[in-house]
Amino acid sequence: MSTFKEGDLALLIDSKGRKYLVTLKKDTHFSFHKGNIFYNEIIGKTYGIKIKSSHGETLTVFPPTLEDYVLKMKRGAQIIYPKDISRIITLLDIFPGAKVFEVGTGSGALTLYLLRAVGEKGKIVSYEKRLDFYQTAKANIEKFIANESAGQLVLLNKDIAEGIEDSDFDRAIIDLTEPWLFLDKVVEALKPGGILGCYLTTVLQIYSLMEEFEKNFSQKLYKVGIFELFERNWEKEGLSLRPALRMVAHTGFIVVFRKLS
Question: Is 244 known as a binding-site position?
Fold first, then answer.
């Protein structure tokens, strides 16, 4: 039976579905608008327990999913949201044992999913130019994967403009404002048949990327497609079943290529 231990991450969910991510530590507590939650009442208990705060609020306690974690972890750069990450994993066909190059670690959200997807025999090489983002991502990643089986990670505080130290990547993903400036370096580091994804947030970025592709890379890359995802939840209240009033609409675009021989 799985139980919470000191040092574990725990997700507290209140009666309105609000979520709080905490790290369990003996003889300490979490304070919120409904009182205090004492960690000693969670440590040693099974996953999925219900506890009461000092003001009588009932909360349910689970270990966080990776999605819970990335939505609550500390951020430097804006994260790629889980709905887009799941599609990136699929479009790039990230497989166990894959060697993946990531440009723009940001806060480490995509990196965490990639590490899980490639498994223990896989490898992720991730570059982040900004030192503050690099430090945030490093802490976020180490905090979550401490007890996980994950791939090898080479995380570098490095500007891709200085070149790529490795090669023969199965897959690559660029999360930069101007990815077209670095296509030559990334394409060179990819294996023939390898898949390249670019994550962009504006139509103008897509236009600039595709212009560069058409002018200089149409003989080196095959365009798979340009993708955008929308996510809508549904709610049931009594006899009523309807779409949620709010939906996760535009967050970004995913442009995918494959390297030609």
Answer: no
Please, what CATH class does the domain formed by 68-259 belong to? Answer: alpha beta
**Could you state, in order of their start, the residue ranges of all structural domains in the chain?**
9-64, 68-259
What is the rounded average pLDDT of the residues 240-247?
Answer: 90
Flag whether 108 is marked binding.
Answer: yes
The total number of residues shown for the chain amounts to 261
On whether 218 is known to bind a ligand per the annotation, the reply is: no
Residue found under tokens 């609020």: 57
- Residue 146 annotated as lining a ligand binding site: no
Does 109 appear as a known binding residue?
yes
Whole-number pLDDT of residue 134: 97
**Is 107 assigned a ligand-binding role in the annotation?**
yes
Fold of 9-64: Vcp-like ATPase; Chain A, domain 2 (3.10.330)
Q: What share of the chain is helix, strand, coil (3-state, %, to 5)?
A: 30, 35, 40
Residues 88-129 have pLDDT tens digits of 999 999 999 999 999 999 999 999 999 999 999 999 999 999
220-230 residues labelled b (16+ CB within 10 A) or e (exposed):
bbeebeebebe
Q: Closest Cα partner for 253 from 196, 175, 200, 176? A: 200
HSE, side-chain direction, 13 A CA sphere, residue 8: 21
pLDDT category of residue 139 using cuts at 50, 70 and 90: very high
